[in-house]
Design goal:
alpha/beta, Endonuclease, Chain A, 3 domains, 20% strand
Length: 485
Protein backbone atom coordinates (compact mmCIF):
# COMPACT_ATOMS: atom_id res chain seq x y z
CA UNK A 1 0.00 0.00 0.00
CA UNK A 2 1.37 3.44 -0.97
CA UNK A 3 1.05 5.27 2.38
CA UNK A 4 2.70 8.38 0.97
CA UNK A 5 0.02 8.69 -1.72
CA UNK A 6 -2.73 8.15 0.86
CA UNK A 7 -1.20 10.83 3.09
CA UNK A 8 -1.11 13.26 0.15
CA UNK A 9 -4.77 12.59 -0.66
CA UNK A 10 -5.78 13.07 2.99
CA UNK A 11 -3.80 16.30 3.20
CA UNK A 12 -5.40 17.66 0.02
CA UNK A 13 -8.87 16.85 1.36
CA UNK A 14 -8.06 18.58 4.67
CA UNK A 15 -6.61 21.57 2.82
CA UNK A 16 -9.72 21.92 0.67
CA UNK A 17 -11.97 21.74 3.74
CA UNK A 18 -9.85 24.33 5.56
CA UNK A 19 -9.93 26.65 2.53
CA UNK A 20 -13.70 26.34 2.34
CA UNK A 21 -13.93 27.18 6.04
CA UNK A 22 -11.67 30.22 5.57
CA UNK A 23 -13.83 31.47 2.70
CA UNK A 24 -17.04 30.93 4.66
CA UNK A 25 -15.84 32.15 8.04
CA UNK A 26 -13.58 35.16 7.41
CA UNK A 27 -15.32 38.51 7.15
CA UNK A 28 -12.55 40.53 5.48
CA UNK A 29 -11.71 39.77 1.85
CA UNK A 30 -8.10 40.81 2.45
CA UNK A 31 -7.75 38.50 5.42
CA UNK A 32 -9.46 35.69 3.52
CA UNK A 33 -6.90 35.91 0.73
CA UNK A 34 -4.04 36.14 3.23
CA UNK A 35 -5.16 33.01 5.11
CA UNK A 36 -5.79 31.12 1.86
CA UNK A 37 -2.29 31.91 0.59
CA UNK A 38 -0.80 30.93 3.94
CA UNK A 39 -2.70 27.64 4.10
CA UNK A 40 -1.88 26.71 0.49
CA UNK A 41 1.76 27.75 0.27
CA UNK A 42 2.94 26.96 3.81
CA UNK A 43 2.05 23.28 4.25
CA UNK A 44 0.78 22.19 7.67
CA UNK A 45 2.05 25.31 9.46
CA UNK A 46 -0.34 27.56 7.51
CA UNK A 47 -3.34 25.46 8.54
CA UNK A 48 -2.22 25.39 12.17
CA UNK A 49 -1.71 29.16 12.11
CA UNK A 50 -5.24 29.72 10.86
CA UNK A 51 -6.82 27.56 13.57
CA UNK A 52 -4.67 29.26 16.22
CA UNK A 53 -5.20 32.86 15.13
CA UNK A 54 -7.72 33.12 12.34
CA UNK A 55 -11.07 31.84 13.58
CA UNK A 56 -13.70 34.55 13.24
CA UNK A 57 -14.79 35.28 16.79
CA UNK A 58 -17.07 38.04 15.58
CA UNK A 59 -19.35 35.19 14.50
CA UNK A 60 -18.53 32.98 17.48
CA UNK A 61 -18.79 35.51 20.26
CA UNK A 62 -16.38 34.94 23.11
CA UNK A 63 -18.98 36.12 25.57
CA UNK A 64 -22.22 38.03 25.65
CA UNK A 65 -22.19 41.67 26.69
CA UNK A 66 -25.72 41.26 28.00
CA UNK A 67 -25.58 42.48 31.59
CA UNK A 68 -29.20 42.18 32.67
CA UNK A 69 -31.04 38.86 32.82
CA UNK A 70 -34.43 40.60 32.72
CA UNK A 71 -35.26 41.24 29.04
CA UNK A 72 -38.12 43.57 29.95
CA UNK A 73 -35.84 45.71 32.09
CA UNK A 74 -33.20 45.64 29.37
CA UNK A 75 -35.73 46.89 26.80
CA UNK A 76 -36.85 49.63 29.16
CA UNK A 77 -33.24 50.73 29.64
CA UNK A 78 -32.66 50.79 25.88
CA UNK A 79 -35.65 53.08 25.43
CA UNK A 80 -34.34 55.31 28.21
CA UNK A 81 -30.91 55.52 26.54
CA UNK A 82 -32.52 56.52 23.24
CA UNK A 83 -34.62 59.17 24.97
CA UNK A 84 -31.76 60.57 27.02
CA UNK A 85 -29.38 60.65 24.03
CA UNK A 86 -31.99 62.44 21.90
CA UNK A 87 -32.49 65.03 24.64
CA UNK A 88 -28.74 65.53 24.87
CA UNK A 89 -28.48 66.02 21.12
CA UNK A 90 -31.47 68.39 21.00
CA UNK A 91 -30.01 70.55 23.79
CA UNK A 92 -26.48 70.60 22.37
CA UNK A 93 -24.87 73.23 20.19
CA UNK A 94 -24.01 73.20 16.51
CA UNK A 95 -20.60 71.54 17.04
CA UNK A 96 -22.25 68.44 18.53
CA UNK A 97 -25.09 68.38 16.01
CA UNK A 98 -22.61 68.51 13.12
CA UNK A 99 -21.53 65.02 14.26
CA UNK A 100 -25.04 63.71 14.86
CA UNK A 101 -24.57 60.72 12.56
CA UNK A 102 -21.63 59.50 14.65
CA UNK A 103 -23.55 59.81 17.91
CA UNK A 104 -26.67 58.12 16.52
CA UNK A 105 -24.60 55.26 15.10
CA UNK A 106 -23.08 54.47 18.53
CA UNK A 107 -26.46 54.59 20.25
CA UNK A 108 -28.04 52.27 17.68
CA UNK A 109 -25.08 49.91 17.41
CA UNK A 110 -24.06 49.44 21.04
CA UNK A 111 -26.50 51.40 23.22
CA UNK A 112 -23.72 53.82 24.17
CA UNK A 113 -25.51 56.93 25.46
CA UNK A 114 -24.66 60.46 24.39
CA UNK A 115 -24.08 62.09 27.77
CA UNK A 116 -24.04 65.74 28.81
CA UNK A 117 -22.80 67.59 31.88
CA UNK A 118 -19.34 66.02 32.04
CA UNK A 119 -16.06 67.44 33.26
CA UNK A 120 -13.19 66.23 31.08
CA UNK A 121 -9.50 66.68 31.73
CA UNK A 122 -6.83 65.93 29.13
CA UNK A 123 -3.85 64.17 30.72
CA UNK A 124 -0.57 64.17 28.79
CA UNK A 125 1.88 61.39 29.67
CA UNK A 126 2.16 59.46 32.89
CA UNK A 127 3.46 62.44 34.84
CA UNK A 128 0.04 64.08 34.49
CA UNK A 129 -2.09 60.94 34.67
CA UNK A 130 -0.82 59.05 37.69
CA UNK A 131 -1.07 61.85 40.30
CA UNK A 132 -4.73 62.31 39.30
CA UNK A 133 -5.36 58.55 39.47
CA UNK A 134 -3.85 58.26 42.96
CA UNK A 135 -5.82 61.30 44.12
CA UNK A 136 -9.09 59.85 42.81
CA UNK A 137 -8.40 56.41 44.33
CA UNK A 138 -7.82 57.94 47.75
CA UNK A 139 -11.15 59.77 47.53
CA UNK A 140 -13.17 56.62 46.71
CA UNK A 141 -16.22 56.13 48.95
CA UNK A 142 -17.86 52.97 47.62
CA UNK A 143 -15.94 51.02 44.98
CA UNK A 144 -12.95 51.07 42.66
CA UNK A 145 -12.96 49.17 39.36
CA UNK A 146 -9.71 48.90 37.45
CA UNK A 147 -8.68 46.90 34.37
CA UNK A 148 -5.44 47.15 32.40
CA UNK A 149 -3.68 45.49 29.53
CA UNK A 150 -0.22 46.19 30.97
CA UNK A 151 0.35 46.57 34.70
CA UNK A 152 3.96 46.27 35.81
CA UNK A 153 5.67 45.58 39.11
CA UNK A 154 7.60 48.84 39.31
CA UNK A 155 7.44 52.09 41.24
CA UNK A 156 4.11 53.38 39.96
CA UNK A 157 2.63 49.87 39.88
CA UNK A 158 3.52 49.40 43.53
CA UNK A 159 2.19 52.85 44.48
CA UNK A 160 -1.21 52.18 42.90
CA UNK A 161 -1.31 48.69 44.40
CA UNK A 162 -0.61 50.13 47.87
CA UNK A 163 -3.40 52.69 47.39
CA UNK A 164 -5.84 49.96 46.32
CA UNK A 165 -4.97 47.77 49.31
CA UNK A 166 -5.39 50.74 51.66
CA UNK A 167 -8.88 51.45 50.28
CA UNK A 168 -9.81 47.76 50.55
CA UNK A 169 -8.79 47.82 54.20
CA UNK A 170 -11.03 50.85 54.69
CA UNK A 171 -13.97 48.76 53.51
CA UNK A 172 -14.09 49.99 49.91
CA UNK A 173 -14.83 47.27 47.36
CA UNK A 174 -11.92 47.04 44.90
CA UNK A 175 -12.11 44.88 41.77
CA UNK A 176 -9.03 44.48 39.58
CA UNK A 177 -8.83 42.84 36.11
CA UNK A 178 -5.44 42.34 34.49
CA UNK A 179 -4.75 40.91 31.06
CA UNK A 180 -3.10 37.54 31.56
CA UNK A 181 -0.63 38.15 28.73
CA UNK A 182 0.06 41.88 28.88
CA UNK A 183 0.39 41.84 32.68
CA UNK A 184 1.98 38.42 33.05
CA UNK A 185 4.88 39.90 35.05
CA UNK A 186 2.61 40.66 38.04
CA UNK A 187 1.15 37.17 38.48
CA UNK A 188 3.62 36.28 41.25
CA UNK A 189 4.07 39.65 42.98
CA UNK A 190 1.44 42.39 42.58
CA UNK A 191 -1.51 40.00 42.22
CA UNK A 192 -0.81 38.00 45.42
CA UNK A 193 -0.19 41.27 47.31
CA UNK A 194 -3.51 42.71 46.12
CA UNK A 195 -5.41 39.53 46.92
CA UNK A 196 -3.87 39.33 50.40
CA UNK A 197 -4.86 42.95 50.95
CA UNK A 198 -8.54 42.36 50.20
CA UNK A 199 -8.60 43.40 46.54
CA UNK A 200 -10.63 41.09 44.28
CA UNK A 201 -8.29 40.21 41.40
CA UNK A 202 -8.97 38.31 38.19
CA UNK A 203 -7.04 37.62 34.98
CA UNK A 204 -8.86 38.35 31.74
CA UNK A 205 -9.15 35.23 29.54
CA UNK A 206 -6.52 33.28 31.46
CA UNK A 207 -3.91 31.69 29.21
CA UNK A 208 -3.90 27.91 29.38
CA UNK A 209 -1.44 25.67 27.63
CA UNK A 210 -3.89 23.71 25.52
CA UNK A 211 -5.42 26.83 24.00
CA UNK A 212 -2.41 29.10 24.46
CA UNK A 213 -2.14 30.46 20.94
CA UNK A 214 -5.83 31.19 20.56
CA UNK A 215 -6.15 32.95 23.90
CA UNK A 216 -2.95 34.84 23.28
CA UNK A 217 -4.53 36.26 20.14
CA UNK A 218 -7.61 37.79 21.78
CA UNK A 219 -6.46 40.21 24.47
CA UNK A 220 -8.10 42.85 26.64
CA UNK A 221 -6.27 45.99 25.53
CA UNK A 222 -8.54 48.31 27.55
CA UNK A 223 -7.26 50.69 30.23
CA UNK A 224 -10.20 51.61 32.44
CA UNK A 225 -10.54 52.93 35.98
CA UNK A 226 -14.00 53.66 37.39
CA UNK A 227 -14.40 55.12 40.87
CA UNK A 228 -17.79 55.22 42.60
CA UNK A 229 -19.50 55.25 39.21
CA UNK A 230 -18.75 58.96 38.95
CA UNK A 231 -15.07 59.35 37.97
CA UNK A 232 -13.25 57.41 35.25
CA UNK A 233 -9.93 57.30 33.45
CA UNK A 234 -9.45 55.96 29.92
CA UNK A 235 -6.78 56.25 27.25
CA UNK A 236 -3.49 54.85 26.04
CA UNK A 237 -1.39 54.94 29.21
CA UNK A 238 -0.79 51.60 30.93
CA UNK A 239 0.49 51.27 34.49
CA UNK A 240 4.27 51.34 34.08
CA UNK A 241 7.17 53.63 34.93
CA UNK A 242 8.02 53.87 31.24
CA UNK A 243 5.10 56.28 30.76
CA UNK A 244 6.56 58.77 33.25
CA UNK A 245 9.11 61.23 31.88
CA UNK A 246 11.08 62.88 34.67
CA UNK A 247 14.50 64.38 35.20
CA UNK A 248 15.84 61.41 37.16
CA UNK A 249 14.92 59.05 34.32
CA UNK A 250 16.71 60.86 31.53
CA UNK A 251 18.32 57.62 30.37
CA UNK A 252 14.91 56.17 29.49
CA UNK A 253 13.26 56.70 26.13
CA UNK A 254 10.84 59.63 26.12
CA UNK A 255 7.27 58.29 26.02
CA UNK A 256 4.41 60.34 24.57
CA UNK A 257 0.91 59.24 25.42
CA UNK A 258 -2.55 60.66 26.11
CA UNK A 259 -5.28 59.87 28.62
CA UNK A 260 -8.61 61.34 29.77
CA UNK A 261 -10.23 61.86 33.15
CA UNK A 262 -14.03 61.99 32.96
CA UNK A 263 -16.34 63.06 35.78
CA UNK A 264 -20.08 62.73 35.19
CA UNK A 265 -22.59 60.60 33.26
CA UNK A 266 -19.99 59.75 30.61
CA UNK A 267 -18.61 57.24 33.11
CA UNK A 268 -21.71 55.03 32.78
CA UNK A 269 -20.70 53.08 29.70
CA UNK A 270 -17.17 52.55 30.99
CA UNK A 271 -18.74 51.10 34.13
CA UNK A 272 -20.96 48.89 31.98
CA UNK A 273 -17.93 47.58 30.07
CA UNK A 274 -16.09 46.81 33.29
CA UNK A 275 -19.05 44.91 34.76
CA UNK A 276 -19.42 42.85 31.57
CA UNK A 277 -15.70 42.04 31.61
CA UNK A 278 -15.83 41.17 35.32
CA UNK A 279 -18.76 38.81 34.89
CA UNK A 280 -16.93 37.13 32.02
CA UNK A 281 -13.80 36.63 34.13
CA UNK A 282 -15.53 35.50 37.31
CA UNK A 283 -18.36 33.33 38.52
CA UNK A 284 -20.07 36.51 39.74
CA UNK A 285 -23.15 37.85 38.02
CA UNK A 286 -22.98 41.49 39.02
CA UNK A 287 -26.13 43.38 38.10
CA UNK A 288 -26.71 47.12 37.62
CA UNK A 289 -27.60 48.92 40.83
CA UNK A 290 -27.60 52.40 42.35
CA UNK A 291 -24.04 52.00 43.60
CA UNK A 292 -22.62 51.15 40.17
CA UNK A 293 -24.79 53.72 38.35
CA UNK A 294 -25.54 56.44 40.93
CA UNK A 295 -28.14 59.03 40.00
CA UNK A 296 -25.85 61.60 41.61
CA UNK A 297 -23.73 61.41 38.47
CA UNK A 298 -26.69 63.08 36.72
CA UNK A 299 -28.00 65.23 39.55
CA UNK A 300 -24.63 66.76 40.42
CA UNK A 301 -23.28 66.93 36.86
CA UNK A 302 -22.16 70.51 36.41
CA UNK A 303 -19.68 70.16 33.55
CA UNK A 304 -20.37 71.22 30.00
CA UNK A 305 -18.75 68.44 27.97
CA UNK A 306 -20.69 65.96 25.85
CA UNK A 307 -19.11 62.48 25.99
CA UNK A 308 -19.80 59.14 24.34
CA UNK A 309 -17.91 55.85 24.48
CA UNK A 310 -17.07 53.57 21.55
CA UNK A 311 -16.06 50.02 22.41
CA UNK A 312 -15.62 46.82 20.46
CA UNK A 313 -13.93 43.45 20.42
CA UNK A 314 -14.49 39.85 19.36
CA UNK A 315 -17.83 40.10 21.19
CA UNK A 316 -19.14 42.84 18.89
CA UNK A 317 -21.52 42.31 16.00
CA UNK A 318 -19.59 44.89 13.96
CA UNK A 319 -16.17 46.59 14.36
CA UNK A 320 -17.66 49.53 16.25
CA UNK A 321 -14.42 51.42 16.82
CA UNK A 322 -13.45 51.20 13.15
CA UNK A 323 -16.91 52.39 12.12
CA UNK A 324 -16.75 55.30 14.57
CA UNK A 325 -13.39 56.43 13.19
CA UNK A 326 -14.66 56.16 9.63
CA UNK A 327 -17.73 58.20 10.53
CA UNK A 328 -15.65 60.88 12.26
CA UNK A 329 -13.40 61.14 9.21
CA UNK A 330 -16.33 61.25 6.79
CA UNK A 331 -18.04 64.03 8.78
CA UNK A 332 -14.96 66.25 8.93
CA UNK A 333 -14.99 69.31 6.69
CA UNK A 334 -11.74 71.14 7.47
CA UNK A 335 -9.05 69.19 9.33
CA UNK A 336 -8.25 65.70 10.63
CA UNK A 337 -5.34 65.12 13.03
CA UNK A 338 -4.43 61.52 13.85
CA UNK A 339 -1.81 60.10 16.18
CA UNK A 340 -1.23 56.35 16.35
CA UNK A 341 1.75 54.16 17.23
CA UNK A 342 0.71 51.29 14.95
CA UNK A 343 -0.72 52.06 11.53
CA UNK A 344 -1.97 49.06 9.54
CA UNK A 345 -5.32 50.56 8.59
CA UNK A 346 -6.87 48.32 5.97
CA UNK A 347 -8.58 49.43 2.78
CA UNK A 348 -11.64 51.17 4.25
CA UNK A 349 -9.63 53.50 6.48
CA UNK A 350 -7.03 54.22 3.82
CA UNK A 351 -9.78 55.06 1.33
CA UNK A 352 -11.55 57.33 3.85
CA UNK A 353 -8.34 59.29 4.53
CA UNK A 354 -7.53 59.57 0.83
CA UNK A 355 -11.04 60.75 -0.02
CA UNK A 356 -10.85 63.36 2.73
CA UNK A 357 -7.46 64.64 1.58
CA UNK A 358 -8.45 64.69 -2.09
CA UNK A 359 -11.56 66.62 -1.11
CA UNK A 360 -9.45 69.45 0.29
CA UNK A 361 -9.51 68.50 3.97
CA UNK A 362 -6.20 68.90 5.81
CA UNK A 363 -5.22 65.41 6.95
CA UNK A 364 -2.16 65.00 9.15
CA UNK A 365 -0.88 61.70 10.52
CA UNK A 366 1.71 61.37 13.30
CA UNK A 367 3.42 57.99 13.73
CA UNK A 368 6.64 56.83 15.41
CA UNK A 369 9.85 57.46 13.52
CA UNK A 370 11.09 54.11 14.83
CA UNK A 371 8.57 51.48 15.88
CA UNK A 372 9.14 48.78 18.48
CA UNK A 373 8.33 46.19 15.80
CA UNK A 374 10.30 46.03 12.55
CA UNK A 375 7.62 44.00 10.79
CA UNK A 376 4.77 46.29 11.88
CA UNK A 377 6.85 49.35 10.97
CA UNK A 378 7.56 47.95 7.49
CA UNK A 379 3.90 47.09 6.93
CA UNK A 380 2.83 50.59 8.02
CA UNK A 381 5.31 52.27 5.70
CA UNK A 382 3.85 50.38 2.75
CA UNK A 383 0.68 52.48 3.06
CA UNK A 384 2.38 55.87 3.08
CA UNK A 385 2.85 56.37 -0.68
CA UNK A 386 -0.86 56.31 -1.53
CA UNK A 387 -1.66 58.66 1.36
CA UNK A 388 1.12 61.07 0.43
CA UNK A 389 0.02 61.18 -3.21
CA UNK A 390 -3.51 62.13 -2.12
CA UNK A 391 -2.21 65.01 0.02
CA UNK A 392 -2.01 63.48 3.51
CA UNK A 393 0.86 64.91 5.56
CA UNK A 394 2.76 62.19 7.45
CA UNK A 395 5.05 63.05 10.36
CA UNK A 396 7.62 60.73 11.93
CA UNK A 397 7.99 61.39 15.67
CA UNK A 398 11.66 61.60 16.68
CA UNK A 399 11.72 62.78 20.32
CA UNK A 400 10.99 59.27 21.61
CA UNK A 401 8.15 56.80 21.14
CA UNK A 402 4.65 58.13 20.50
CA UNK A 403 2.08 55.71 21.93
CA UNK A 404 -1.00 57.99 21.94
CA UNK A 405 -4.13 56.93 20.06
CA UNK A 406 -6.02 60.13 19.24
CA UNK A 407 -8.06 61.81 16.52
CA UNK A 408 -9.22 65.42 16.28
CA UNK A 409 -11.74 66.47 13.63
CA UNK A 410 -12.36 70.15 12.82
CA UNK A 411 -11.43 71.04 16.40
CA UNK A 412 -14.99 69.98 17.27
CA UNK A 413 -14.54 66.42 18.48
CA UNK A 414 -11.64 64.65 20.16
CA UNK A 415 -11.21 60.88 20.29
CA UNK A 416 -8.84 59.43 22.90
CA UNK A 417 -8.61 55.75 23.69
CA UNK A 418 -6.83 52.43 23.59
CA UNK A 419 -7.33 51.41 19.95
CA UNK A 420 -4.48 51.58 17.48
CA UNK A 421 -5.23 51.99 13.79
CA UNK A 422 -4.58 48.38 12.88
CA UNK A 423 -6.34 45.10 12.24
CA UNK A 424 -5.64 43.83 15.75
CA UNK A 425 -7.42 46.72 17.45
CA UNK A 426 -10.35 46.66 15.03
CA UNK A 427 -10.96 42.89 15.01
CA UNK A 428 -9.11 40.98 17.72
CA UNK A 429 -8.58 43.04 20.86
CA UNK A 430 -11.11 44.34 23.35
CA UNK A 431 -10.73 48.12 22.98
CA UNK A 432 -12.40 51.35 24.12
CA UNK A 433 -12.30 54.96 22.90
CA UNK A 434 -13.82 58.06 24.47
CA UNK A 435 -15.34 60.67 22.14
CA UNK A 436 -15.59 64.22 23.47
CA UNK A 437 -17.89 66.48 21.45
CA UNK A 438 -16.38 69.75 22.64
CA UNK A 439 -14.46 72.52 20.90
CA UNK A 440 -12.29 73.37 23.94
CA UNK A 441 -11.03 69.81 24.49
CA UNK A 442 -10.64 69.26 20.74
CA UNK A 443 -8.66 72.48 20.38
CA UNK A 444 -6.49 71.57 23.36
CA UNK A 445 -5.73 68.16 21.84
CA UNK A 446 -5.08 69.77 18.45
CA UNK A 447 -2.55 72.11 20.10
CA UNK A 448 -0.86 69.06 21.64
CA UNK A 449 -0.71 67.47 18.19
CA UNK A 450 0.97 70.52 16.69
CA UNK A 451 3.43 70.61 19.58
CA UNK A 452 4.24 66.95 18.88
CA UNK A 453 4.89 67.47 15.18
CA UNK A 454 7.45 70.10 16.14
CA UNK A 455 9.41 67.07 17.41
CA UNK A 456 8.82 65.15 14.19
CA UNK A 457 10.02 65.22 10.59
CA UNK A 458 7.57 65.44 7.72
CA UNK A 459 7.90 62.91 4.90
CA UNK A 460 8.70 64.49 1.56
CA UNK A 461 6.34 62.94 -0.97
CA UNK A 462 8.77 63.11 -3.92
CA UNK A 463 11.67 61.65 -1.98
CA UNK A 464 9.47 58.92 -0.52
CA UNK A 465 8.05 57.81 -3.85
CA UNK A 466 11.49 57.85 -5.50
CA UNK A 467 13.14 55.66 -2.88
CA UNK A 468 15.13 52.71 -4.26
CA UNK A 469 13.34 49.42 -4.86
CA UNK A 470 15.41 47.62 -2.22
CA UNK A 471 13.76 49.82 0.42
CA UNK A 472 10.24 49.41 -0.92
CA UNK A 473 10.29 45.64 -1.47
CA UNK A 474 10.45 44.57 2.21
CA UNK A 475 7.55 46.93 2.93
CA UNK A 476 5.48 45.41 0.12
CA UNK A 477 6.20 41.94 1.45
CA UNK A 478 5.28 42.98 5.00
CA UNK A 479 2.02 44.41 3.67
CA UNK A 480 1.04 40.99 2.33
CA UNK A 481 0.95 39.62 5.87
CA UNK A 482 -0.34 42.84 7.51
CA UNK A 483 -3.88 41.44 7.98
CA UNK A 484 -2.34 38.73 10.16
CA UNK A 485 -0.27 41.05 12.38
Amino acid sequence: MNWFLIAEIVYIIVLVLVCLRIIYDTRSTTKTLAYLLLAIFVPFAGILFYFAFGINYRKRKMYSKKLMADDGLSQKLSEEIYRYSKETMDQSGADVKSNKELAVMLVKDSMSPLTAGNDVKLLINGEQKFPEVLKAIRKAQNHIHIEYYIYENDEIGAAIADALVQKAREGITVRFIYDDFGSRSIRKNIVPRLSAGGVQTLPFYKIKFMVFANRLNYRNHRKIIVIDGITAFVGGINVSDRYINSANKSSRQYWRDTHLQIDGPGVMYLQYLFLCDWNFCSSDKLQPNAQFFPRTSFLTANGNKVVQIAASGPDSDVPTILFSLLQAINLASEEILITTPYFIPGESLIDALMVAALGGIRVKLLVPGVSDSLLVNAAARSYYADLLKSGVEIYLYSKGFVHAKTLVADRKIAIVGTANMDYRSFDLNFEVNAIVYDRDIASELADVFHKDIADASIINVVEWINRPVWKKLPEKVARLVSPLL
